[in-house]
Amino acid sequence: MELGLYTFADVGTTSGGNAIGPHRRLRNLIEEIELADQVGLDVFGLGEHHRPDYASSAPAVALAAAAERTSRIKLTSAVTVLSSDDPIRVFQQFATLDLLSGGRAEIMAGRGSFIESFPLFGYDLEDYDELFAEKLALLLELNEGERISWPGGRHTPKIDARGVYPRPHQAKLPIWIAVGGTPQSVARAGALGLPLALAIIGGEPARFAPLFSLYREAAGRAGVDPGRLATSLNVHGFIGESTQQAADDFYGPQAEVMNRIGRERGWGPTNRAQYDRSRAAGGALFVGDPEQVAEKIVAQHRLFGNDRFLLQMAIGTMPHDKMLNAIELYGTRVAPLVRRETAKSPAKIPAE
């Protein structure tokens, strides 16, 4: 199982001791990716947002900078909001990243959990799913070969036998579908034979297991061998020298972000009691000392049969020194435990 990290490069939007602007946050981000590479993690993902509280509107640019400071870690978007972007430019940007990195680029495409990019780039939210489906089809076609003929559609232009360059270092760019729990999106990924990344940031993870079964069933109905498809769990959490230290360090930044987003979406405020329940064995948060986090990763792996696990630790204005320490713990102490345990016996794949 691959182990990695993802982030949206949060910045501080208010003054105070933890305030951080986009310049410093992006410089810190490159150091975090470099350290993740050094301690042996497998993947680093950078999401796309168009808001004042994030510095990640152009993931391919930041990941290209990280490519020059790393040697082996895979570099992926997490996610690319494909619905409001140009699939040709997305392909060219990540093909360029792939060339710079020597074949380490990936695209994680999604419809987007935030909507700011739609009015910004002139798209109608009424076309939310149609935009994604049409642009994903074009992106997949671009990945097949250098010359493309495309009939065009409501949201993409007609293309007559044009070359699209540069081509990636890999034969094809790995393209994942990222979902937040919508069954239709899960089934679409399976039917297309694309790897699936499932974000679980709340509730009881066990309740999401049927989605992986749905994914594999949809693949089988489409004539795709489910056994060759990859799946990822993308979750929130933090690692500290002790469970108490990790819990205390993560609660403030994580609660501030969840409450800010909650006010926008009509959610009730979070509190420490809810947070502590989510840290328990059956909860969605992976917060604790290295042994506790490793144990929870292994337990989830046995439940879901996932091939990849990505942890979002940089939520809110988490101090950079604490982030670096958590990354080091993840690579040097959590990862060896997880790899040893998952190598002992295969995961229990949920029944179809």
Give the secondary structure arrangement, pairings included.
Elements lengths: L1 E6 L14 H17 L4 E4 L12 H9 L6 E4 L2 E2 L5 H15 L3 E6 L6 H4 L7 H15 L4 E4 L8 E5 L11 E5 L3 H10 L3 E5 L8 H13 L9 E9 L3 H23 L6 H7 L7 E3 L1 H15 L3 E5 L7 H25 L8
Parallel strand pairs: 1-2, 1-12, 2-3, 3-5, 4-5, 5-8, 8-9, 9-10, 10-11, 10-12
Antiparallel strand pairs: 6-7
Helix pairs in contact: 1-2, 1-11, 2-3, 3-5, 6-7, 10-11
Task: Describe this entry's structure for a reader.
The protein has one domain: Alpha-Beta Barrel (TIM Barrel). The chain has eleven helices and twelve strands. The strands form two sheets. An eight-stranded parallel barrel has the order 1-2-3-5-8-9-10-12, surrounded by eight helices. Strands 6-7 form a two-stranded antiparallel ribbon. With 352 residues, the chain is of the alpha/beta class. α2 (59-67) links the parallel β2 (43-46) and β3.
